[in-house]
Amino acid sequence: MGEDRNFNIRHSPVRYTQEQEKQRCWKEAKGSVQLFFAWSDLRRYVYINDDDLVQELYCDNRISNRKYSLFNFVPKNLWEQFSRFMNQYFLLIACLQLWSLITPVNPASTWGPLIFIFAVSATKEAWDDYNRYLSDKKANEKEVWVVKHGIKKHIQAQHIHVGNIVWLRENDEVPCDLVLLGTSDSQGLCFAETSALDGETDLKTRVIPSACMGIDSELLHKIKGVIECPNPDKDIRRFDANLQWACGVAVYTGNETKLGMSRGIPEPKLTAVDAMIDKLTGAIFVFQIVVVTVLGIAGNIWKDTEARKQWYVAYPEEGPWYELLVIPLRFELLCSIMIPISIKVSLDFVKSLYAKFIDWDHEMIDQETGVSSHATNTAISEDLGQVEYILTDKTGTLTDNKMIFKRCCIGGIFCGNECGDALKDVVLHGAVSNGSPDVLRFITVMAICNTVIPTRSKSGEILYKAQSQDEEALVKAAACLHMVLVKKNANVLEINFNGSAIHFEVLDTLEFTSDRKRMSVVVKDCQNGKIILLSKGADEAILPYALSGQEIRTFTEAVEQYAQLGLRTLCLAWRELEEDEYREWSLVFKEACSALVDREWRIAEVCQRIEHDLEILGVTAIEDRLQDGVPEAIETLRKAGINFWMLTGDKQSTAIQIALSCNFVSPEPKGQILITIAEPKDVAFVIDGWALEIVLKHYRRAFTELAMLSKTAICCRVTPSQKAQVVELLKLCEYRTLAIGDGGNDVRMIQQADIGVGISGREGLQAARAADYSIGKFRFLTRLILVHGRYSYIRTVFLSQYSFYKSLIICFIQIFFSLVSGVSGTSLFNSVSLMAYNVFYTSVPVLVSVLDKDLSERTVIQHPQILFYCQAGRLFNPMTFAGWFGRSLFHAIVVFVISIHAHGYEKSEMEEVAMVALSGCIWLQAFVVTLETNSFTILQLLAIWGNLLSFYIINLIVSTIPSAGMYTIMFRLCRQPSYWITMFLFDSFLLELKSPSPELIVFLLYPKGILEKFFITEQTKHVIANWMTCLILAILWCNRGHIGYQH
């Protein structure tokens, strides 16, 4: 909805016929469009109640948040998939495999997994888009009342056009952007709630344009005219009406509404683990190129020196020009599996589960409000386990945002200092009863200098709807002092003071902004006709504009005293205006309010002209208590090595007091904290917003160095943009940052941080909707980071490194086989086995690692210091990856050497040796996952060992098919004791690499904890393990010459 200050409405003379009116409007439209293109893109002309004309100019009201359509889904999704380097790489490999001359395996070995992975990703995208479609469909088909050709009709919201008149009833949702034409209120007021848009639950006042004042409701559906307004933009103005009825003309519809244009897909955030995976992928690719080059050269040398001498090779004497490229390209295809094709889809799957674990966590439900935690971003859970800096708002984040009026200073008299509650102060109540002019003016400002909307419950009790908790606290406090705000009827306020009704007419409202830090109202006393300016705001926004000669030292001392107690302070003032002065100012103010260019700046400048020479009445002090568990949560997270910065708009003294009470810093002997240095790299500092602005502009490098040393900082009087700048500064220092807030002024900070957390608080849901994660209370941040973040990090790094490990081991075996097969690039494994290995055999067991817990949740909370190694990235870095790389190389050597020497004799089939090697890899995977698993559940055991069993079942079935290329192989192998001894030998080498202790051989035969059940003493385990090792080695030695299959 819009107000008259946003739009210019020109009535069309009623003497025109409908056709004449249409022609006139069309001519004006063409002229307006010419002017529009001539000088700017800032204007739109809306022709009221002319359905035929506007349909030709603007879109209908159908909204669409869909990313795809039926026609563009396949090409658009494929384009997005192939925009990633890894997918481009695998597509290139798959295309090269279509060249039969160079491919060592069937193209299905790459095309199969590639298509499967693309299908999974596309299915997920399609499902998400379908849900968006259902949401759009529900909104588009909502029934609304619209005037069509002078008749009020019930139509679907999607059929509304620009210029249509829309009728709304109480509690209806506004279907598009409207300019109010009329309401059931005689003064054209509409009270609106914006919670569906920005999460703010308070009522806002909107007024119909002055041009529409006095129009009878029965004539509204016949109104004609032209609205001149800006083109659609992202400045959101969508509301839900709460009167009996209201009507407005649609000016922006569909995706051109301010809400539609403000929607957008947030920029994807790259986690530290994802960044490391990208680096390692690049390193593996370089390594792969080196290997391919070396083997390609060696293969061409062997071909020219040895292969042409062998009769069975049958190389031609002269080949085509590209002959030298055949062997290198063949090795490129053979080594392409070094980069795991399934890593992305696996990570996407487990990260989605991590997000669901957060959603399902019953211990993170706020019992007071019923609000549960929610993960909006499903891709960054592991970053929670690497947080180094938390930047937090104060009000509503650390505090409860339940404002309670505690103390005040009126005309130099302090109230509430003795009893701790000004509303129980006998002196104050006595001054009210005696009609003290200073006190009455003070509580009058408290009661009416606000945007509070009084309503009545069914029982007749007065309830207040306020845009801020501070305003509600002041109005309630005034009511306790017998100055009761009873009613707001249009521009007239009714105050009940000791049973007497007092009326004020609100002439203008000078709204609060973060730059001005104050708000004012101009009212007219209906009893004596005096025009009065009432103001309230921060001390630095009120006291400097005091009347010349007024002593303000007492008020300054009061502000400082209350701030030391951690109370929120506001200064109240007023000023009587001359009628001529007001009339002249009002004209300029209305002109500024109707400006289409630089409107906010012009309004602020005009407000400055009247907000001066103020008579300071006093200071209010409001208590905002800390949330339960905040000090404990901060202390726990500080033990985990996380540093805290507080970014608040409050004054320095208040912020420091809150910091002291919630364990941000420890108090100095003098009770003040400016800079505290307990030890090197343990610095705490306090800085004001004005100083921060100078520092960020002129001393950025020095401030950056200070930031890198600081564990704690308190930034006071900062603006939303400064909050975002501080977050950006810490990110440039390569720290992992988490920003947490609860209000709209925290959104920029939340979106700038690596991780944004919003609190679903009393200031609404705007921060929670913009954040990656939303929680009900600050104390849940402990569990979010230490439990969910740490578990997600540990599980993700294992899955990532394991994915590379299982791809490298099979690739190394292929390379070793090439070395004994003439460096020809021949594949040991068939295409079906490779495809099953990548997609199924080695993927299912590791996916259940999402259930693994190395430590109990209770232990993690009690010992937060264990987060240190996650923050330092000690579980996933080039060194740890080198360990997995070495493990894969060692295991590949073991599997290949034993397979070749045990089963690769003259009468063996290559498929038999390949199946032995593949079986060894599958057994190794099962034991590696078992070794790396810290806690077991039935699902994990079924996934690991059930997957191993399914490997044999599947291959036994395939071995019954004559055309499968593996006919009878698995049956023959399973009947040979040497095959099972070979499998056991593979795993014994795995144990020797993991730890030289022979007891581990026995340990791996059983899940953890089983040993204690079956073997009583360590000596018994040692004896049995050594006996089994000796037995295996003896059998292998006795069969060293004929351990293979005997014909």
How would you describe this protein?
Pfam families: Cation_ATPase, E1-E2_ATPase, Hydrolase_3, PhoLip_ATPase_C, PhoLip_ATPase_N. This is Phospholipid-transporting ATPase. It is a multi-pass membrane protein. GO terms for molecular function: ATP binding; ATP hydrolysis activity; ATPase-coupled intramembrane lipid transporter activity; metal ion binding. Keywords: Magnesium, Membrane, Metal-binding, Translocase, Transmembrane, Transmembrane helix. By secondary structure, the protein is an alpha+beta fold. 46% of the residues lie in helices and 18% in strands. The protein is built from 37 helices and 31 strands. Strands 12-31-30-29-13-25-28-27-26 form a nine-stranded mixed β-sheet, with helices on both faces. The protein has a nine-stranded antiparallel β-sheet with strand order 15-14-24-23-22-21-20-19-18, sandwiched between helices. The chain has a five-stranded antiparallel β-sheet with strand order 4-3-5-11-6, with no helix packed on it. A hairpin with a 5-residue loop joins strand 16 and strand 17 (462-465). The radius of gyration is 37 Å and the shape is elongated. The protein starts with 7 loop residues before the first strand and ends in a 9-residue tail after the last helix.
Helix and strand topology:
Elements: E1 8-11, H1 18-39, E2 44-48, H2 51-57, H3 73-81, H4 85-96, H5 108-140, E3 143-148, E4 151-156, E5 165-169, E6 177-183, E7 189-194, H6 195-198, E8 200-207, E9 225-229, E10 240-241, E11 245-252, H7 258-262, H8 272-305, H9 323-335, H10 343-359, E12 374-375, E13 389-392, E14 399-410, E15 413-415, H11 426-433, H12 437-448, E16 453-456, E17 462-465, H13 469-480, E18 483-489, E19 492-497, E20 500-510, E21 518-525, E22 531-537, H14 539-542, H15 553-564, E23 568-577, H16 579-593, H17 599-610, E24 615-626, H18 630-639, E25 643-647, H19 652-661, E26 675-679, E27 682-688, H20 689-698, H21 700-709, E28 710-716, H22 720-732, E29 737-741, H23 747-752, E30 755-759, H24 766-770, E31 773-775, H25 780-819, H26 831-841, H27 844-847, H28 857-862, H29 868-871, H30 878-903, H31 910-932, H32 938-958, H33 969-974, H34 977-994, H35 999-1004, H36 1010-1014, H37 1018-1038
Parallel strand pairs: 13-25, 13-29, 25-28, 27-28, 29-30, 30-31
Antiparallel strand pairs: 1-9, 2-9, 3-4, 3-5, 5-11, 6-11, 7-8, 7-10, 12-31, 14-15, 14-24, 16-17, 18-19, 19-20, 20-21, 21-22, 22-23, 23-24, 26-27
Helix pairs in contact: 3-5, 4-5, 5-26, 8-9, 10-25, 12-13, 15-19, 16-17, 18-25, 20-21, 25-30, 25-31, 30-31, 30-34, 31-32, 31-34, 34-37
